[in-house]
Design a protein that fits this description.
By secondary structure, the chain is mainly α. It is 70% helix and 0% strand.
Length: 205
């Protein structure tokens, strides 16, 4: 048993463990608001809070490299891309009934099952592992970066292509909406900006 296990137990948390728990609760609350709100822009902003909370959790676990990757890739790229997509497609700012799904209970069941599976896998994998938060870092940035960008480089590239396709799709949808608005059928009796009826002008001519 390590020195950390002898000094601190589950019933005597230190400051780092308390901060980890509080940040985890805030992150969990932000995640709940993200998936339950009916305002798309608010969901994207709460997603920033959720991903930022995860970055803080990584910092508390002395994994500063993963924390900055979390901020740069997810907060700085994914969420910004989501916001650009919302702006390009002119998504409604207020409450949108279309953002609510009728399969809420099915989605909740799948989410709870996935969360239970992840918790079981993590607990089973690290059941006897203790982390000494007061000691030196277990892994260096060089080792973590080499493992991340050598063994997991293909998922990162696939994610970048997926995000690029989403951005191109948002631009295409916004251009189609503009074209439909510009070439829409003329409404009988419609008046121009000066208050005159175009049909009346043609009759005068």
């Amino acid at each position: 048993m390590s020195l950390a296990a002898e000094t601190h137990g589950f019933l005597s948390p230190n400051g780092v463990e308390i901060a980890f728990l509080l940040v985890g609760l805030v992150t969990f609350g932000a995640a709940l608001v993200t998936v339950t709100t009916r305002q798309l822009v608010h969901a994207a902003l709460w997603l920033v809070v959720t991903l930022g909370g995860l970055a803080v959790e990584y910092l508390l676990l002395t994994a500063e490299f993963i924390a900055w990757v979390q901020v740069l890739i997810y907060v700085g790229s994914v969420v910004v891309l989501l916001l650009f997509g919302l702006m390009l497609t002119r998504a409604p700012i207020g409450r949108s009934p279309d953002a609510d799904s009728g399969n809420r209970w099915a989605a909740l069941t799948v989410a709870v099952a996935a969360a239970a599976a992840l918790v079981w896998v993590v607990v089973d994998a690290f059941r006897t592992t203790w982390i000494d938060l007061d000691g030196p870092a277990a892994g260096s940035t060089k080792v973590t970066g080499a493992s991340l960008f050598q063994n997991w480089v293909l998922p990162f590239e696939a994610l970048s292509v997926l995000l690029l396709a989403a951005l191109v799709g948002a631009i295409v949808l916004s251009r189609k909406a503009d074209a439909a608005a510009d070439t829409g059928p003329a409404v009988p009796g419609a008046r121009d900006g000066k208050g005159a009826d175009p049909a009346d002008k043609e009759g005068v001519r």
